[in-house]
Amino acid sequence: MDFLADEEGRAAAAQSLEQCVHQGLKQLYQAQELCDATLVAEGRRFHCHRLVLASVSPYFLRMFSGSFREAQDGEVLLQDMASATLQSVLNYLYTGELTLTAENAQDLFTAACRLQLLPLEETVGRFLAESVSLESCLRLYALAHAHNHPALLHVALRCVSQDFGPLSKHEDFLLLDPHALIGLLSSDSLAVASELAVYRAVRRWVNSAPAERLPLLRELLSHLRLPLLTHQELAKMQADIAKRYGHVQLQWEKLGGKTRVQASGGLRQGMYQEGIVCVGHRMFPNFDEDDKEITDSQVHCLDPCAQSWHQLADLKGVRLPSCASVGRKLYASGGFGPGNYTLATLHEYDSFTNQWTKLPSMAAPRHKHAFLAWKQTLFDIAGDMPTGGDSAESFDLERSAWSPIASLPCALCDFASAVLKDKLYIIGGRNLGGNSILVFDASMIYDIASDTWTVVQQEVGRYYASAVAVDDGICVLGGVGRMDIGESDKHLKCFFVDEDGTLSEHRVLPQIPMLTLQPGVVRWQKRVYMLGGQGKYGCLFTVDSWEPGQCSWTEVQGWFPDRGYSALGSCCVTLQMPKEPLASLLQETSVSSVAVGVAENQILPRDSR
């Protein structure tokens, strides 16, 4: 007991010492005692303490410990800083108290960055990030860019990018400095449908102060993605440049669809839309009109906004692969090939060129397996495979190489899978180590950073289900369990798995419209889509959607475009698709002449109106 009392006493003493020091500094500042430094702003003098300033600011530490004049006389003149701002900074340093408003936050942020007061910079930076709006985003973007503040820059850039067209006509846009403007021009996130809109923004910025900005035009144009202009847009831009600024010669090169993207550096956000892609398989009949075995997968894309389908390039020689996507790239691994044998192949589809490419194969053939994407890594996990169903491997997209990862605690197939944050989830399924109908009543969670698996037991066991991650957990849809027999509505129930792998007691999901095994499930924007799958009497061709918070599913108009094909499990993903007319331009098979840069010709103003 005495030992515990001593520990508590020491903790209380340490706390009181911290409070004592804090209170003592506050009193010394308020009483203006023992001051050995003076800060001057707008002619007003603030007496303070070198030790306090140097302990929290590398700026003041260098100034007071070096050979500067301020180290000798202790006086620091802070030009271009308002005295009210400096007063607030010192109050924060000595008392920890800070009053933030829309009126003083930007000045305090600038002062904190200038004086290298990191705690104050982060506090005010968070306040500004939370207050970003259409009215303030350009100013805050310029502020964050000038002071290299990543968090505020990310939030402000996202806001500017989403409304770049209207905001580029705003007065604050014309006040951007060249470096901040180039940062915008280099961004992939600009929501513009055509690069011509970016050129017009540059033109407005240059024309607002032609005397000083015309010499920068050639450099600014070099950040435009000219290969993404259609032939008509390019001609229009060239004519406008010649009319306004004299003869500016563009460099030309013959480029095909794929090399256009490479030469430009990639599409901007507004040039593509996210669609739902299904790598379909034929459930029946098993043979075509010539009685030949069908081994190809048809690929269709659903535009949820227009509720319309269009067909993409077929995946030749592969049936029932598992699919994943990263940006504009779709990946298909494993499945069945001719002769119904299991494949170890990996194929990549580029939506910009509408072409499939074969990548290095897996170490082992797989089907009914999990295929998940996290950042620039693909994961192939377990499944029904000749060598057992407990192995897993990963594919590094940047290195284009496979590596083994930790094996699963047991062999599984017919499970649901999803990615949530930095973890992979395997939910339910059938245990291949024993009876073929032994249901796995648990989840397995793979920690990518530590390369380890954790098993979490569950009260509900289900196989032939599908899963999709939402903001704070995973929705598990469809499938059956051993306890569903004799309970007609049991197979219609869905459940929610929390981040820790346990079943949520608070999240209730609506029943699915009908018995569905292995439906294709994706999240598109705020809605969850369930496509195809296998029903009581064969394959399904329906598409239903549900938005979290709603009490029922909604049937989406427009079934699968080919009634002979449907989709199962992980054959459905979201994918970035280029918009027209850029989609047709990128898929041109013949090369064409496009501008790829701006020559060194002198830019002469003709008409800056």
TrEMBL record:
SMART domains for this protein: BACK, BTB, Kelch
Ranges where the BTB domain occurs: 35-102
Keywords, comma-separated and alphabetical: Kelch repeat, Repeat
SUPFAM superfamilies assigned: Kelch motif, POZ domain
One Pfam family of this chain: Kelch_KLHDC2_KLHL20_DRC7
Entries under InterPro entries matching the protein: BACK, BTB-kelch_protein, BTB/POZ_dom, Kelch-typ_b-propeller, Kelch_1, SKP1/BTB/POZ_sf
Name assigned to this protein: BTB domain-containing protein
